[in-house]
Design a protein that fits this description.
Elements: H1 3-13, H2 21-31, E1 37-41, E2 46-50, H3 70-77, E3 81-85, H4 87-90, E4 94-103, E5 106-115, E6 124-128, E7 133-137, E8 141-147, E9 150-155, E10 159-162, H5 166-170, E11 178-182, E12 185-188, E13 192-197, E14 203-207, E15 212-215, H6 217-227
Helix pairs in contact: 1-2
Length: about 230
Protein backbone atom coordinates (compact mmCIF):
# COMPACT_ATOMS: atom_id res chain seq x y z
CA UNK A 1 0.00 0.00 0.00
CA UNK A 2 1.51 3.36 -1.05
CA UNK A 3 1.45 6.60 0.99
CA UNK A 4 -1.62 7.96 -0.79
CA UNK A 5 -3.58 4.72 -0.25
CA UNK A 6 -2.48 4.59 3.40
CA UNK A 7 -3.65 8.18 3.97
CA UNK A 8 -7.01 7.50 2.34
CA UNK A 9 -7.55 4.21 4.19
CA UNK A 10 -6.70 5.85 7.54
CA UNK A 11 -9.11 8.73 6.87
CA UNK A 12 -11.94 6.38 5.92
CA UNK A 13 -11.47 4.18 8.99
CA UNK A 14 -11.06 6.97 11.56
CA UNK A 15 -13.99 8.98 13.00
CA UNK A 16 -13.94 12.55 11.70
CA UNK A 17 -13.74 14.09 15.16
CA UNK A 18 -10.53 12.18 15.96
CA UNK A 19 -8.81 12.37 12.57
CA UNK A 20 -5.55 14.37 12.83
CA UNK A 21 -5.58 17.69 10.97
CA UNK A 22 -2.45 16.82 8.90
CA UNK A 23 -4.21 13.69 7.62
CA UNK A 24 -7.26 15.73 6.63
CA UNK A 25 -5.09 18.27 4.84
CA UNK A 26 -3.24 15.61 2.89
CA UNK A 27 -6.43 13.77 1.96
CA UNK A 28 -8.39 16.82 0.81
CA UNK A 29 -5.53 18.42 -1.10
CA UNK A 30 -5.32 15.27 -3.23
CA UNK A 31 -9.04 14.82 -3.80
CA UNK A 32 -10.42 18.30 -4.46
CA UNK A 33 -9.69 21.31 -6.70
CA UNK A 34 -7.07 23.77 -5.45
CA UNK A 35 -9.64 26.59 -5.34
CA UNK A 36 -11.89 24.67 -2.93
CA UNK A 37 -12.38 25.42 0.74
CA UNK A 38 -13.18 22.43 2.97
CA UNK A 39 -15.55 22.28 5.94
CA UNK A 40 -15.94 19.23 8.19
CA UNK A 41 -18.72 18.93 10.75
CA UNK A 42 -20.46 16.57 13.11
CA UNK A 43 -24.27 16.73 13.21
CA UNK A 44 -24.35 19.98 15.19
CA UNK A 45 -21.26 22.06 14.57
CA UNK A 46 -18.22 22.54 12.38
CA UNK A 47 -15.15 20.71 13.63
CA UNK A 48 -12.66 21.82 10.98
CA UNK A 49 -12.41 24.47 8.27
CA UNK A 50 -9.70 24.96 5.65
CA UNK A 51 -10.30 28.12 3.59
CA UNK A 52 -8.73 28.67 0.19
CA UNK A 53 -7.59 32.01 -1.20
CA UNK A 54 -10.45 31.85 -3.72
CA UNK A 55 -13.40 31.69 -1.31
CA UNK A 56 -13.56 32.20 2.45
CA UNK A 57 -16.76 31.71 4.43
CA UNK A 58 -17.03 33.06 8.00
CA UNK A 59 -16.74 29.60 9.56
CA UNK A 60 -14.75 28.66 12.67
CA UNK A 61 -14.46 25.28 14.41
CA UNK A 62 -17.18 25.17 17.05
CA UNK A 63 -19.68 27.25 15.06
CA UNK A 64 -23.16 25.81 14.85
CA UNK A 65 -24.36 24.55 11.46
CA UNK A 66 -26.56 27.23 9.92
CA UNK A 67 -29.96 26.36 8.50
CA UNK A 68 -29.92 26.72 4.73
CA UNK A 69 -26.24 25.94 4.34
CA UNK A 70 -25.16 23.03 2.17
CA UNK A 71 -23.98 21.14 5.24
CA UNK A 72 -27.41 21.56 6.86
CA UNK A 73 -29.20 20.44 3.69
CA UNK A 74 -27.04 17.32 3.27
CA UNK A 75 -27.46 16.27 6.91
CA UNK A 76 -31.21 16.87 6.76
CA UNK A 77 -31.71 14.98 3.49
CA UNK A 78 -29.03 12.40 4.40
CA UNK A 79 -27.68 12.45 0.86
CA UNK A 80 -25.19 14.33 -1.28
CA UNK A 81 -26.27 17.87 -2.12
CA UNK A 82 -24.64 20.05 -4.80
CA UNK A 83 -26.03 23.55 -5.24
CA UNK A 84 -25.36 27.28 -5.39
CA UNK A 85 -26.02 29.16 -2.13
CA UNK A 86 -26.77 32.88 -2.12
CA UNK A 87 -25.26 35.47 0.27
CA UNK A 88 -28.23 35.21 2.67
CA UNK A 89 -26.59 32.34 4.61
CA UNK A 90 -22.97 33.42 5.17
CA UNK A 91 -22.92 36.83 3.50
CA UNK A 92 -20.84 35.32 0.67
CA UNK A 93 -22.33 33.46 -2.31
CA UNK A 94 -20.77 30.11 -3.05
CA UNK A 95 -21.24 26.84 -4.87
CA UNK A 96 -20.41 23.52 -3.31
CA UNK A 97 -21.02 19.88 -2.66
CA UNK A 98 -21.79 18.39 0.73
CA UNK A 99 -21.62 14.66 1.48
CA UNK A 100 -22.82 13.08 4.76
CA UNK A 101 -20.61 10.56 6.53
CA UNK A 102 -22.45 7.49 7.83
CA UNK A 103 -21.60 5.13 10.66
CA UNK A 104 -23.85 2.09 11.11
CA UNK A 105 -26.48 3.63 8.86
CA UNK A 106 -26.64 6.96 10.71
CA UNK A 107 -25.29 10.31 9.53
CA UNK A 108 -22.61 11.35 12.03
CA UNK A 109 -21.02 14.22 10.16
CA UNK A 110 -20.50 15.91 6.84
CA UNK A 111 -17.74 16.97 4.45
CA UNK A 112 -18.48 20.10 2.41
CA UNK A 113 -16.42 21.30 -0.55
CA UNK A 114 -16.87 25.04 -1.21
CA UNK A 115 -16.12 26.74 -4.53
CA UNK A 116 -16.30 30.45 -5.40
CA UNK A 117 -18.84 29.99 -8.20
CA UNK A 118 -20.91 27.37 -9.97
CA UNK A 119 -18.98 25.54 -12.69
CA UNK A 120 -19.90 26.21 -16.30
CA UNK A 121 -22.98 24.29 -17.35
CA UNK A 122 -21.59 22.00 -20.02
CA UNK A 123 -23.43 19.16 -21.72
CA UNK A 124 -20.31 17.29 -22.85
CA UNK A 125 -16.72 16.35 -22.00
CA UNK A 126 -13.89 16.58 -24.52
CA UNK A 127 -11.71 13.47 -24.33
CA UNK A 128 -8.29 12.75 -25.82
CA UNK A 129 -8.26 9.63 -27.95
CA UNK A 130 -5.13 8.16 -29.55
CA UNK A 131 -4.56 10.94 -32.08
CA UNK A 132 -7.37 13.46 -31.66
CA UNK A 133 -9.93 15.01 -29.32
CA UNK A 134 -13.65 14.19 -29.32
CA UNK A 135 -16.56 15.92 -27.53
CA UNK A 136 -18.74 13.33 -25.78
CA UNK A 137 -22.20 14.26 -24.57
CA UNK A 138 -23.03 13.38 -20.97
CA UNK A 139 -25.87 11.04 -21.92
CA UNK A 140 -23.45 8.84 -23.90
CA UNK A 141 -20.95 8.40 -21.04
CA UNK A 142 -21.09 4.95 -19.42
CA UNK A 143 -18.61 5.54 -16.59
CA UNK A 144 -15.52 7.52 -15.56
CA UNK A 145 -12.45 6.02 -13.90
CA UNK A 146 -9.58 7.74 -12.11
CA UNK A 147 -6.23 7.08 -13.78
CA UNK A 148 -3.03 8.80 -12.61
CA UNK A 149 -4.60 12.19 -11.78
CA UNK A 150 -6.56 12.16 -15.04
CA UNK A 151 -9.89 10.53 -15.88
CA UNK A 152 -10.59 7.69 -18.28
CA UNK A 153 -13.96 8.28 -19.96
CA UNK A 154 -15.84 5.29 -21.39
CA UNK A 155 -18.73 6.19 -23.65
CA UNK A 156 -20.76 4.82 -26.54
CA UNK A 157 -19.25 7.35 -28.95
CA UNK A 158 -15.59 7.70 -27.94
CA UNK A 159 -13.21 6.46 -25.27
CA UNK A 160 -10.23 8.38 -23.97
CA UNK A 161 -8.71 10.55 -21.24
CA UNK A 162 -9.82 13.88 -19.79
CA UNK A 163 -7.21 16.17 -18.24
CA UNK A 164 -9.23 16.85 -15.06
CA UNK A 165 -9.27 14.43 -12.14
CA UNK A 166 -12.40 12.56 -11.08
CA UNK A 167 -13.29 14.92 -8.22
CA UNK A 168 -13.06 17.99 -10.45
CA UNK A 169 -15.36 16.37 -13.01
CA UNK A 170 -17.82 15.37 -10.29
CA UNK A 171 -18.74 19.05 -9.94
CA UNK A 172 -19.50 19.33 -13.67
CA UNK A 173 -21.66 16.24 -14.10
CA UNK A 174 -25.44 16.40 -13.50
CA UNK A 175 -26.06 14.69 -10.10
CA UNK A 176 -29.41 13.23 -11.19
CA UNK A 177 -27.58 11.22 -13.86
CA UNK A 178 -24.13 10.48 -12.40
CA UNK A 179 -23.20 9.05 -9.02
CA UNK A 180 -19.86 8.43 -7.32
CA UNK A 181 -19.70 4.79 -6.26
CA UNK A 182 -16.01 4.42 -5.45
CA UNK A 183 -12.95 6.56 -4.95
CA UNK A 184 -12.01 5.63 -8.53
CA UNK A 185 -15.40 5.47 -10.28
CA UNK A 186 -18.38 7.61 -11.25
CA UNK A 187 -21.15 5.84 -13.18
CA UNK A 188 -24.04 6.94 -15.34
CA UNK A 189 -27.06 5.35 -13.64
CA UNK A 190 -28.77 4.97 -17.02
CA UNK A 191 -26.13 2.42 -18.01
CA UNK A 192 -26.44 0.18 -14.96
CA UNK A 193 -27.86 -3.17 -16.11
CA UNK A 194 -28.02 -4.79 -12.68
CA UNK A 195 -26.80 -4.42 -9.10
CA UNK A 196 -25.38 -7.52 -7.45
CA UNK A 197 -24.74 -7.91 -3.70
CA UNK A 198 -21.06 -8.17 -2.84
CA UNK A 199 -19.13 -8.85 0.36
CA UNK A 200 -19.19 -6.52 3.39
CA UNK A 201 -22.60 -4.98 2.53
CA UNK A 202 -21.35 -3.50 -0.74
CA UNK A 203 -22.41 -4.03 -4.35
CA UNK A 204 -21.08 -4.91 -7.76
CA UNK A 205 -22.50 -3.03 -10.75
CA UNK A 206 -22.87 -4.77 -14.08
CA UNK A 207 -23.00 -2.06 -16.72
CA UNK A 208 -24.77 -2.44 -20.06
CA UNK A 209 -21.39 -2.85 -21.80
CA UNK A 210 -20.62 -5.75 -19.37
CA UNK A 211 -18.07 -3.74 -17.38
CA UNK A 212 -18.06 -4.68 -13.68
CA UNK A 213 -17.68 -1.76 -11.27
CA UNK A 214 -17.48 -2.09 -7.47
CA UNK A 215 -19.43 0.08 -5.06
CA UNK A 216 -17.09 0.62 -2.13
CA UNK A 217 -18.26 0.44 1.46
CA UNK A 218 -17.64 4.17 1.86
CA UNK A 219 -20.18 4.98 -0.86
CA UNK A 220 -22.67 2.11 -0.36
CA UNK A 221 -25.10 4.02 1.89
CA UNK A 222 -25.19 7.06 -0.40
CA UNK A 223 -25.63 4.79 -3.41
CA UNK A 224 -28.65 3.05 -1.86
CA UNK A 225 -30.24 6.34 -0.89
CA UNK A 226 -29.68 7.82 -4.34
CA UNK A 227 -31.31 4.84 -6.07
CA UNK A 228 -34.01 4.39 -3.39
CA UNK A 229 -33.48 0.74 -2.52
Amino acid sequence: MNDEETSYFTARCTPLNSLPIPSLLQLFQELYPVQASIAVSDVNQYTYYQPSKFVQLPIQPGDQIIEGSLTYQALTAQKKIADAIGPHVFGVPYYGMSVPVFEQGQATGCITVILPSKPAQLSFLTVKTEDRWAPVRFEHIVYLESQQRKTFVKSEKATGLHKCNLSELEFLLPPEQFIRVHRSYIVNVNYIREIQPDSHSTFLLIMKDQTKIPVSQSYASLFRRALLF
